[in-house]
Amino acid sequence: ALETLAAMLLSVVAVSLKNYAAMRTGVPLADGPLAAADAALGFDWHAYVAAVDASAWASNWLGIGYASFTLQLLALPVLVAMADARAQAYRFLIAYLLLVLAASAIAIGFPSAGAHIAYGVGQDELRFVDAKAAYHFYASFQAVRGDPGFVLGADNASGILTFPSVHAGVALLCAWAAWPVCARRSATAPSPTPSSRRSRSR
After folding, report:
1. How far apart, in Å, are the Cα atoms of 139 and each of 42, 96, 135?
2. Each residue of 132-176: pLDDT tens digit?
3. Are residues 110 and 30 in contact, defined by beta-carbon separation less than 8 angstroms?
4. Which of 37, 124, 168, 179 has the fewest Cβ atoms within 10 Å of its own Cβ atom?
5. N-to-C CA span, the chain
6. Model's pTM, two decimal places?
7. CA distance 161 to 16
8. pLDDT per residue over 78-115, tens digit each?
9. d(Cα 32, Cα 11) in Å, to the nearest integer?
10. Cα–Cα distance between 145 and 23 in angstroms, integer?
11. Helical H runs in the chain?
């Protein structure tokens, strides 16, 4: 389990370096074309955000899920390995690396500041949705793209890929990695005895 955690920590560092290198290319921002693609697909981003922002419950729980990204990424492979599924934990690690390598390769041609910034929707226009995550990376994003003297360090490192969504991909990977363990635990759970069934039926 500790080996899995160490491997994941090293992977996160390597991925961060790769993402910053991808954004260093200076390709023009793709927010305009991405917004046009949303419109062509019939997706109304403003309506979606307004619907979420209308519900304190939805905004809160979606925010918690988003904020738990790093915890899930680091903890899940450890928990899977501890459940005697070390091979599955390493498959998760490899799949994560492939996912992020693909995402950063795509992001080279489609660098994006993100929907909140592209559409100009700030925290003052929102009631329940917490937009801090949509803006906290932006200074670092601008610096790596426009400052020739930019130096990446622990004080300015951030998740700077907004397209394609690594969060969405990791959510699917987490479900895939945990499913066999959960299914096995469910299959090996003891069945109720006849006496316990009769007790519940009374």
Report:
1. 31, 26, 8
2. 988 989 999 999 999 989 998 888 888 888 999 898 899 999 999
3. yes
4. 124
5. 45
6. 0.78
7. 10
8. 888 888 788 888 899 899 999 999 999 999 999 999 99
9. 32
10. 6
11. 2-23, 31-41, 45-53, 56-67, 69-82, 86-109, 115-119, 132-135, 138-146, 166-188, 194-201
Q: Which two tokens stand for residue 94?
A: 């490899």
Helical packing angle, 138-146 and 2-23, nearest 10°: 60
Q: How far is the C-alpha of 62 from the C-alpha of 100, rounded, in Å?
A: 22
| Cβ-contact 92, 173 below 8 angstroms | yes
Q: In the structure encoding, which two tokens stand for residue 84, read together?
A: 């005697």
Instruction: Extract the tokens encoding 158.
Output: 């951030």
Contact by Cβ (8 Å): 72, 174:
yes
Rounded (5°) CA angle 187-189-194? 115
